[in-house]
Each structure stands twice: as C-alpha cells, then as structure tokens.
Amino acid sequence: MIKKLVVAAALGTLMSTGTAFGSAFQINVGYDATGDGSTLTGVIEELGYTGTRATSIYLGDPSVAGTQIIDTNIDSVMDSYGFSAGSHTTVGGTTVSFNYPLDPQQKNISALNFLGAGEGNGFTDGVIVPYGATAPNDGVFWGITYDYNIQGQITATGLEFTSGSFDVYFENGTDRIQVLRLDVTGSQLDPANLYLTGPISYDFAGADDAFVQNFFVDVASGMTFYELWAAGEDTKLGINWILDTNIDPPIPTLDQLVAFTYDDDQTALFRQTNLDGSVTFQVVPEPMMLTLFGAGLLALGFAARRRRNQT
C-alpha cells in the first residue's frame, strides 16, 4: 500500500482566532489562460499530490537512537550518498527496484482542491502539460512541482526532523520559477502520525520578483503570502507539516533497506516509498501558532483513532 503523506502548512486569515486547520487561498499566475478575464484560480482549500517518490537515507542503524536521517527527492543528494538505480538486494535478503524520482510525475502537485466549484486558470497536474506541451499551449498551461531535502535523527521514541526545506516551483513549459519555500524546524511523532513544523520563507534567489510575491493570495485578508510574511515577526506565517505514517512504519524494516557505499568506506542505508498527501495553509500570528498546532494535533489524533476503529 502507498504511504500517505499529509502536509498541513498552517497559514489562514491574519489575526484569526479560529481553529480551522485550513484557510482559503488563490493562485495568481499573472495571465488569463481560460478567457474569463481573471489571472486568479478559484478559491483553493488545499493542494493535493499523489505518487511522490521519497528516498530516506539513514547514516547508521535505523533502530539506534542518534542515527542521522536525510529525506529527499533530489537526485544530487541521493548521488552524494552512493545511490544507484536498478534492482538491489535489501539488508533482509529480498529484491527491490530503486529509481530516481521521475520529473515531474513524482515531484508534482496533482490537484487544486477547491472550496466548492473552482477553476484552475490553466492548471494541469504537470505530467502531460506543461511537460511536452506544444504551441500554442506551451507557456499557457501550468503546473506546480517541488524539491525537498530535510534532515533529522532517530530518537528513543521514533524519529525527529529538525532542518531542511521544501522548495515549490511554478512551471509552464517555458519557465521554472521558485514561488515559495517551506522550512522545517521541528517535528512530533505519535503512534499514527509524524508532524513536521516550521515557517514559510521567501529567503531564496528570485523572491524579489513581483510574480513570485503575488503568486499565493490569502482570500480572507486579501493579502499575498509574501505581504504577510514580510510584515514582521508578529505576523509571519507558521507552517505545520503532518506526515501520516499509518501504512508504512516510521522506522523501516530490513526488507525495505538497501546499503550503498559513499566516500570510499562509508555506508548509507536507503529506503524508497511513494507518498500521497495535501498542503493546506492557515495564516495566524506567530504567537498563536502553538495553540493552533496543538488543536490540530488533537483533531488529527482523534481522526486517526476513528479511522483505525472503523477498519
């Protein structure tokens, strides 16, 4: 079965006191792709994706506390730890096939999930268009892709991620433009879910471009994500990442691990899996983030227990 990655980026209405876990937003691509007179998409509740090819790299025994973890979908990071594609024998003696993530099929947002009826203003899942698009569609239809590289370690109670980022890109067959960064600064593990937390960021090359700054728009405040982020420490956006590990265990089994050699004599253990999930946003002042996150964890924990009780 496919491991389900649910990403909740807590962003929503500025100065909101609600505990709803997702807030409405729109995407502004800067042109009208469908002839309705607007450069905006419909109102979006979440970004959905399926089949992300995730590679976990363990620099030591995954069952031992303190072992470093790198989780990524970036080829060059995988290469730096000795990765090679093809058929391999696992530590447990079974045979698995490892591959580099397909670009964009295993690195893309596959759906804009609208609040009610919505229109994507030329959005596609990024697999057919803009990739391989021909004129006049090239440069009109668009998609969203992402690269990520996060770091953490095994703990006495499971695992913890403390650094790294997800870089989000707009692509339309002509351009590939980074439009957002999601920084990871911490995590929390319970029996059903791994929660990754951190702020959004525009600290990347090209973030001074008007297209980038206007790309994500919070519906309730009418402000762009960039405006909210740039307003100061009191109004910067907090992000909660929620990794649902109900299907695959947080700690890999021996039959999932393949050993590769890097730096001549060092060994890294690799696991690959496919992830599904969604990204939601809620805009809140930073001091409210912990309260909101706590409420979200309680709600998600209840939902996870309810799912288990129903199966």
Please report which band the strand proportion falls in: under 5%, 5-15%, 15-25%, 25-35%, 35-45% or over 45%: 35-45%
- The 3D shape can be described as elongated
- What's the total helix number? 4
Spans of at least 5 consecutive residues whose pLDDT stays below 50 are 1-20, 297-311
Order of helix and strand elements from N to C terminus? EEEEEHEEEEEEEEHEHEEEH
What is the count of β-strands? 17
Compute the separation of the termini in Å: 15 Å
Mean pLDDT: 79
**Helicity, in percent?**
10-25%
CA-atom Rg in angstroms: 20 Å
Reported for the largest beta sheet, the result is:
13 strands, mixed
Describe this structure in words.
Residues 1-20 form the signal peptide. Keywords: Membrane, Signal, Transmembrane, Transmembrane helix. InterPro entries: Ice-binding_C (IPR013424). The protein is mostly beta strands and 311 residues long. The chain has one domain (3-310). The chain is 12% helix and 38% strand. It has helices at 75-80, 210-213, 225-230, 289-310; strands at residues 3-4, 7-8, 25-27, 44-59, 68-72, 86-89, 95-98, 111-114, 143-155, 158-171, 176-183, 186-189, 193-201, 216-218, 238-244, 258-262, 266-280. Strands 1, 2, 4, 5, 8, 9, 10, 11, 12, 13, 15, 16 and 17 form a 13-stranded mixed β-sheet that branches. A two-stranded antiparallel sheet has the order 3-14. The chain has a two-stranded antiparallel sheet with strand order 6-7. Strand 4 (44-59) and strand 5 form a beta hairpin. It is elongated and about 60 Å long. Residues 1-20 and 297-311 have low confidence and may be disordered.
